[in-house]
Write a structure and sequence with these properties.
heterotrimer; A mainly alpha (about 290); B alpha/beta (about 400); C mainly alpha (about 375); A: about 290 residues; 12 helices; C: about 375 residues; 16 helices; 2 strands; globular
């Protein structure tokens, strides 16, 4: 029983990583109704920017917000420069562009900062959280930041004009345009916000897994799994989904023996497929109505 | 690469005009693949050092009038690309041999091909045990100490110094991890089952190995064998420290780089870790005045100024290139594949620069493991301190 | 296609607006298309005559990739379903071939259709959960399949058949494919002709399928699933069949790959390969089956893009006389190789700008412009 509890708590602390990423995934889905396969690499690149700023001597209190702001404008710019010219191209072209972005960011990060791991200091400090041996201060801080981000996002989409306009633009661009919403600006704004949230996720994740160009490769998949499990339309669901994936993965690794340890990632992937098939809207999502 | 060759040929042509009567020596074509792009591209420095080393050898007439043409290709550490590039080297460029190809999965993909084509496949930059199998693969030979040998050394050390240890093992779920695991169990002998209380594999795709470390602690283990590549090794070191687990920690030599692993993991957390080595550590003050070390520094300054002079990769590149040069020298102008393979399989107590003093290279038609000796070392302060004798496991 | 195509409601499918069904009118024996087909075929047949070993090997690879692209195109281009997971079916074909040849002692040529059938089975089964998914959801599910494939192949429990991480080496004794019928032919050349033959058969059958009733039904589903359903076309049946047939063709490519490389291992079938097939298809032209050869070429040369780019830059440098400004030796090439992912990505982006509907769209655009100029 003790091992069980330990692994659940440790699952929650890895789950915090996935929850963070899942939130970023849901954000971009809300804004453009796309899954961005390059999102992990963008977050990784943002994290390198933060790391570089700190390596230049900026305190983290300055470096992190700066990196997040830069990422916001970066995401905005990517939408303007790369996606706007092909907005009427078939969906597959968009996927190819995602692949291209993935490759560009990964290779560029390796070119500039090489592929050896870098340690990123945690803004919350090292050591155990309130004497617990299972949860570190960083993990606790990460969970807190994720929840705060979640609350802010919820308020943004629920109560602000821009947030409502963004939701309208994503859900029904034609009607939104008719009521005077600048759909294209909203899309770019969504990209910027997704990129900024990704940056926060990357900066929170890096102290746990070490910073290197491939750090997000599998985390993005777990993030997808979390987002799909909770529901792509529901930020709260995505966060819960992220935690659940972390716990499930840990328990499988512990109780299914070697097979479980070998198949950790495959279990998360199977989860994606099962949820998509059984309950595509996720545990907490809205049902998507087919438009004709 | 084609262009590099044409440039080289152009350079040769210019040379031929200026020195009209230059006795035309033979050109030995050597191919190689390495990860110059992608996640494993830090290893590319090994190949870069070798390329510089062959330039050095040509300039210094190590092979007399004969020259070496080195053709390194990029495979990005992807097995299908290794196949394509190696076939390009063998079938289009018609290299005499390939040298120092990087990686276990990549070399596995061409292992059989090289042997079917009877092309010497020499001094690979990987320590898997399968490269020393002359009976089935007479054309393939490794270079660095095989992983099982290193595992065995740790196992024997444990039997001698802490026979009642309770061991937890973390290993990468592939050839490399299993090689270490098997060697270690061999070193423990009959007591293996009794001593090992936990062994957990991880996959390269796992984000962290944290949960394995947590269950190790609760398993009551007091000894930890860390068979992981740099990123995961560093995660394990840091997590163990974070949760206050302080086992006797063995770290495989794959990840014992101070700069790339221990510093990111935290020097404080890395104290007293035991590992092993066979090359001089370029950051160790003990070697700074060693003549071999000074030669290497001079070479690096002139031929590979961009190279990292604190990395073990550039040391490895130089030492393994010197081994290759010795084989070519002893071939005495007969650069046929048979002769080169024969010479590679008859190295007798060769001293190669930058190996730890006392380590010699030995091969025979039945012994395809050139280096089989290592020395244990313990991490103290900011560097490794070697202790004990050179431990040799030269195959009987 | 609910929420993925909000950018363009006039054309909610996947293919470019310029798409013309394969069975458009004007069917003459010596139409322009037929002449081109014959020319390409003649060119392919003559490859071993004017080139040697390594190029023949590369062209064999290209044909294998072309078959894989064709397979994916049947699913995506003809039936409108996404897949980022075709490396899984490719791997199934390759492992079926390797296991049958090495453990079962089956003749390697026989394993090609068997691999296709096995892959068909897996594809058909996978289609049932996939049926309920559309657009990006399907992309995600198949992507998950592609990522899981290498891990499943490494699984300890099936190691005795798959060889685990080590994989399977084929034709252990000679490492040459046995040349049948007592033919006096280089094994590499024989493999090339075998691959070409399989390619031709698969291509002809695929074209026939597209023109058949089944093909029309598949395209109707792609263009307007709701209308198709109301016309009485069974969506599950045709979608699952499309998935199965697509997996079959890709599985055949996988089996040929095993025969050409003579080695199968989990690390050869990562999701990067699935993405490479997808990129090959998009470059060839989605929905334009003829583009598969262009897609195969792209798959062959894109991974070496840095070296090619280096050659092109040096060539231009020589042409315009700025060669002296470039770093000497292979320093420049080393930088390009380190940047190969960037070069690859930028070229993809530019390609999508220039030819959003692939080489097929580009060729059609050029042809129609030439026609307008000449008439």
């Amino acid at each position: 029983m003790e091992l069980f509890l330990q692994q659940v708590v440790s699952g929650i602390s890895t789950g915090a990583i996935y929850a963070c990423m899942a939130l970023a995934v849901v954000m971009i889905y809300q804004a453009i109704h796309h899954l961005n396969f390059a999102q992990g690499e963008m977050a990784m690149f943002s994290t390198y920017i933060a790391w570089q700023l700190m390596a230049w001597g900026l305190p983290w209190g300055l470096a992190l917000p700066l990196a997040v702001i830069l990422s916001f404008f970066g995401g905005f710019a990517i939408e303007r420069i790369v996606f706007k010219p092909i907005q009427n191209a078939p969906v597959l072209s968009h996927i190819v562009i995602f692949i291209a972005l993935f490759s560009i960011f990964n290779s560029l990060a390796g070119f500039i900062w090489d592929f050896t791991i870098k340690s990123v200091a945690s803004p919350f400090g090292e050591g155990p959280f309130m004497g617990s041996t299972l949860l570190g201060k960083h993990q606790a801080g990460m969970i807190a930041v994720t929840l705060v981000m979640l609350a802010m996002l919820w308020a943004f989409f629920q109560f602000t004009r821009v947030g409502l306009a963004m939701r309208a633009a994503a859900a029904n661009p034609e009607s939104a345009r008719l009521v005077g919403i600048r759909v294209e600006t909203m899309t770019a704004l969504g990209w910027g916000m997704a990129s900024a949230i990704g940056a926060v996720a990357g900066i929170l994740i890096a102290p746990v897994v070490f910073l290197e160009p491939n750090m997000m490769l599998s985390i993005l998949l777990y993030g997808f799994a979390g987002a799909v499990l909770g529901g792509l339309t529901n930020p709260l669901g995505a966060v819960v989904g992220g935690f659940l994936v972390g716990i499930i993965e840990n328990l499988a690794g512990t109780y299914l023996g070697d097979v479980g340890a070998e198949l950790k990632l495959s279990i998360a992937l199977a989860l994606i497929i099962v949820v998509l098939v059984m309950k595509p809207e996720g545990l907490f999502g809205r049902k998507i109505v087919q438009r004709v | 690469m084609e262009l590099m060759r044409t440039k080289l040929m152009a350079a040769c042509a210019v040379l031929a005009i200026s020195t009209t009567a230059a006795a035309a020596g033979t050109t030995v074509k050597i191919g190689s693949t390495n990860a110059y792009s992608g996640p494993a591209s830090a290893y590319g420095q090994i190949g870069q050092t070798s390329a510089a080393c062959f330039n050095w050898a040509n300039d210094n007439k190590i092979l007399g009038e004969d020259t070496i043409e080195f053709i390194p290709l990029d495979d990005g550490y992807s097995p299908p690309k290794t196949v394509e590039q190696t076939r390009k080297l063998v079938e289009r460029d018609e290299v005499v041999l390939t040298f120092q190809q990087l990686g276990t999965p990549t070399n596995s993909a061409i292992h059989k091909y090289m042997n079917a084509k009877k092309v010497p496949h020499l001094f690979l930059a990987t320590g898997a045990s399968k490269w020393g199998d002359p009976e089935n693969f007479p054309w393939t030979m490794g270079w660095q100490p095989p992983y099982p040998t290193e595992g065995e050394i740790y196992g024997k050390y444990l039997i001698a110094n802490k026979p009642d240890a309770k061991v937890a093992i973390l290993y990468q779920n592939d050839d490399y991890g299993k090689d270490y695991l098997n060697g270690f169990k061999k070193g423990l002998g009959d007591k293996a089952d009794e001593m090992i209380v936990a062994e957990t594999p991880y996959e390269v795709a796992d984000p962290t190995v944290d949960s394995a470390i947590i269950s190790f602690k609760s398993s009551g283990a007091d000894t930890f064998f860390n068979i992981a590549t740099p990123k995961f090794a560093a995660q394990a070191i840091r997590k163990a420290d974070e949760i206050g687990w302080k086992p006797l920690h063995f770290l495989n030599s794959v990840s014992n780089s101070v700069g790339a692993v221990l510093k990111p993991a935290g020097l404080e957390a890395s104290q007293d870790i035991i590992s092993s080595g066979y090359l001089m550590d370029p950051t160790d003050p003990e070697w700074q005045d060693h003549p071999e070390f000074k030669d290497w520094l001079a070479f690096m300054d002139k031929y590979y100024p961009d190279g990292d002079k604190t990395s073990s990769f550039t040391v490895l590149g130089w030492a393994s290139c010197q081994t290759m040069l010795d084989v070519l020298k002893r071939a005495e102008g007969d650069y046929s594949r048979d002769n080169i393979m024969e010479k590679a399989a008859s190295i007798h107590e060769l001293r190669v620069p930058l190996l730890l003093p006392g380590i010699l290279i030995d091969t025979s038609p039945t012994d395809y493991y050139p280096i089989e000796a290592e020395q244990l070392m313990r991490f103290t302060g900011e560097g490794w301190e070697r202790f004990g004798d050179i431990i040799s496991a030269e195959s009987e | 296609m609910t929420d993925i195509a909000h950018t363009d409601h006039r054309n909610p499918g996947l293919t470019a607006p310029a798409y013309r069904p394969a069975d458009a009118p004007r069917r003459r024996l010596l139409s322009g298309g037929n002449i081109v087909t014959l020319l390409v075929l003649a060119l392919l047949i003559s490859i071993p005559i004017y080139s040697k070993g390594f190029f023949v090997f590369q062209m064999t690879q290209m044909l294998v990739y072309a078959i894989a692209v064709l397979g994916l195109n049947l699913l995506t281009g003809i039936n409108g379903q996404f897949s980022l997971g075709h490396s899984a079916f490719y791997a199934i074909g390759a492992y079926t071939c390797a296991i049958l040849v090495e453990l079962g002692g089956v003749n390697y040529m026989l394993t090609i259709p068997i691999a296709g059938i096995v892959a068909f089975g897996f594809g058909f089964l996978f289609a049932f959960p996939a049926l309920r998914l559309e657009g990006l959801y399907l992309a995600l599910a198949t992507f998950a399949l592609a990522v899981a494939t290498p891990q499943l192949l490494k699984l300890h429990a099936i190691e005795q058949w798959t060889g685990g991480v080590q994989g399977i080496v084929m034709f252990q004794d000679t490492f040459d494919v046995p040349v049948p019928f007592g033919l006096d032919m280089d094994p590499g050349v024989w493999t090339f002709y075998l691959t070409l033959f399989v390619f031709a058969v698969v291509y002809v059958l695929a074209m026939a399928l597209v023109k058949s009733r089944t093909g029309r039904a598949m395209m109707a589903i792609r263009d307007n699933p709701i209308a198709a359903r109301s016309m009485g076309i069974s969506l599950p049946y045709y979608k699952a069949t499309a998935f199965g047939v697509s997996a079959l063709v890709t599985g055949i490519a996988g089996a040929l790959n095993a025969i050409v490389i003579k080695f199968v291992a989990p690390d050869s079938f990562t999701f990067f390969f699935a993405i490479l097939i997808l990129v090959g298809m998009v470059i060839g032209g989605v929905g334009w089956l003829q583009g598969c050869l262009i897609g195969g070429l792209a798959m062959l040369y894109l991974p070496n893009i840095a070296e090619i780019f280096d050659n092109v830059v040096l060539w231009f440098a020589g042409l315009f006389g700025f060669a002296d400004l470039l770093p000497s030796g292979n320093a420049l090439q080393q930088q390009f190789i380190r940047l190969s992912g960037v070069i690859y990505g930028v070229i993809l982006v530019l390609f999508i700008y220039v030819a959003p509907s692939g080489a097929g769209g580009l060729i059609r655009a050029i042809v129609s412009r030439v026609k307008r100029l000449t008439s």
